[in-house]
Amino acid sequence: MTRAAFDAPPTDEYDYQARLLLAALDDSQHRIPSDAKTRTLNIMGLRKWVRPVLRDRSGSSIPSNVRHWTLTHHGVNAANRARTAQLAEKYPVATAAVYVPQEGEEHRDIVVVMSEPAADGTVEAHSVKHKGPVRVPLARLRDLPPLRPDPEGEITDWWVITDAEGAELARVEAKDDPGARKAALRHAKVRAAVRRDKGFAVRRLYSSELSIPVGELHGLPRINPAPAERVTSSATPARFCTDTPPVRRTITVTTGMTRKSIPTRLRESGAPGAMVTSEAAGGVLRWRLPDGEELTLGQAAKRFLDD
Question: What is the mean pLDDT of residues 175-201?
């Protein structure tokens, strides 16, 4: 088998193998789960994805005492590609998500996925913070916090303070926005969020929200998947502010419904073919028909889903 074949991710036919690979990838020693089927392990061994660890008590290698199976470097490559394919289905094009930076990078960002993943597992995305395209790894994306329904009742003098992910930090009572921000900075959790995220969000509460227990309020605003269009949300926008008084910006956003991904809809519709990573196209995802023809997701959706 060629190296490309060794490193190729499992297709839909090998879902069970993919689950084993991903479980081993998350294990600190890259061990395959102990309940894996022997026949499956033998097949994965032929593909050079796994190798048996053969040890007896004296430390010599003997075939009769198989303790466990571990990933080879080919198996790690295949598992990483399987993880990328899994994440691509979770975060398809036009999906909004929270980008969680690695240690040493700047604070979190809200992004909208704008492309299919490249061979290195990154996608092009529209950044709310940078107001333009950025490239981020799929593995660093997280789901947006759930949106609450529009509040009802009268506006009160109570304010909710949230961090960059929409998690509630505190509630304060104040007559206006500056007063709410000043009161918020008395809370240790808010000051920690300022150091971590360079700011916090402030939103005035309605009377119907005062019955919601502290810690259960969520609602970081989501942006329209089409960044060129700006639509005003009917809900009161949360203003992201800092503890210093530089020029403040208010971003008006709107919520959006994200339906099932195209690969999922194609499989559920019974469309012929399967999702594969196309080596000919540079390692990007393609919908491959039984006759070998490869389609982009847009072409497959147009042909089989009437999109």
Answer: 90
